[in-house]
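Hi W.,

Here's what went into the run:
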Amino acid sequence: MRIVVPLKAVPDLVEEIEFTPEGTGIDREYLKFVLNEWDDQALEEALLVKEASGGEVAAVGLADDPDIDQALYTALAKGADSAVKVSGGGEDTHTRAALLAAYLKRSPADLILTGVQAPDDLDGQLPPMLAARLGLPHVSVVIAVEAADGSARVRQEFSGGRSQQLDVTLPAVVGVQAARQAPRYAPITRIRQVMQAGGVQEVTVQAGSPQPGLTIRRMYAPEKTGHAEMLEGGADAVADQVIELLRSRGLVKG
Amino acid sequence: MGNDVLVLAERVGKQLQDSTYELLAKARELAQAWGGNADVALFGPADLADQLTAADTVVSIDHPALSDYMPEAYEKALLHVLRERSPRLLLLSNATAGLDQGAALSVLWDAPLAAYAVGLSLDDGVPVATCQVLGGKVLAEVALEGERAICTVIGGSFSSATGQAAGSPEVVHIPPPPELDTARMSVQQVFEPEAGDVDITTADLLVSVGRGIGSKDDLELVQELADALGAPLSSSRPITDSGWLPKTRQVGKSGLKVKPKAYLAFGISGAPEHLEGMRGADLIIACNTDPGAPIFDVAHYGATVDLFDLVPALTGRLRR
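Here's what came out:
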């Protein structure tokens, strides 16, 4: 069984975000990029499926993503069997889905696991778009995957703690919300070893350039509608104030 | 070009989700401006049509494959309705069904999609969505020009009031398309939320903990405070994902919505998905060492002291 995990590098949300002079995009030049955290969950779930049922895991990135090499080498260090960099890129999901679909038509997968969403996928999420392009069944917001004999059993989550188990015929695309366990850690020394060994395969694909069809008029930081009144002092001083706030509302007796 | 707005009804058994009424309220507003109809696609038994009184038309498809929510069957049914009715705009909620359907239909129905909308209005007849991206740090204002579009909307963005107005919609039964007879997936089992655990939605006071706690062993510290306050312990998503607390304690979009008299947040940064579940609390007090954490934008009071100092200090005072 071949499991493909598409990865996306996204702006690190810890960083301050600046906007382009036109105000219709974010200034990416000085931003740090990290692996989309939902993709990290998908990679973990893919490695768990491989450990339970065998198969091989291929991590796939797009060549134009900033710092995608780091994400691909980390995936190899964590246990992915191969890493592939597909030519092209772009922030919008329509273009990314077209490039990845072109790659997957050439190198088909039994199971495609990727993050349910990305922090910057304004024009839609990758898993359903990729599935629609490949004509495959798809399930999103998944929190567990088991694979056996040409099908996958997935657990799909809803609001309010409800969930359901679905059996899906493979090949299929799954949008992972969370893996069954926290993503594993790859030691820096192991990542360095993997980098020295090389092993990221580069693939050139031809894909049309589908337009997301959105006209971005403006991008801006939300106006803060309010901000907490900050309680000053050390832990003891803050504790006194918190107790008083609760007491004044009758939530603490005495 | 159509002037109608179509909403996908999301149901849990015999009940429609609040989000369906929120979207229907917005659909009525837009359709009125366009001189079109506000329609709802209702899949499965048509018995819920009488709860959709604010719609102009309820478009119903019933088929065994639509008895539960099944992503593939819903996609086929919705695509069929879109082709039959050609609305100007499809509105979905940014929850599981919307995350399954929106992006797929953007390709299959060949329509642009604006995701994560928190606002939607018309500018000279053109729908303009305000979308929340990059963890809530950026708002994008996007115009959906062209003859058709899809918008997925974050829950709670619109009032549901006019979506529940009285009326007598026409119910149109569409024969199920033949592609519903074949499916590559099947629903095996439905899991309701675990019962027997505390109900965090009815508590007056909640002590809530997030990623900042760092390890499962340290959870005990916050549990002691919760016990001293007589309050249940709740959490943000990373804590339940790690299995440190049961899913029934998770506050937020994919967990539970809470509205206690006071919500104490320790080590929670305040991702939009979490804020969606607790911003209605009467009093929010947040403790986080990062002064820029978004939780402070919704909290009434905040402190940047270390939770490992503050929590024992609070517990000590309550035990005195």
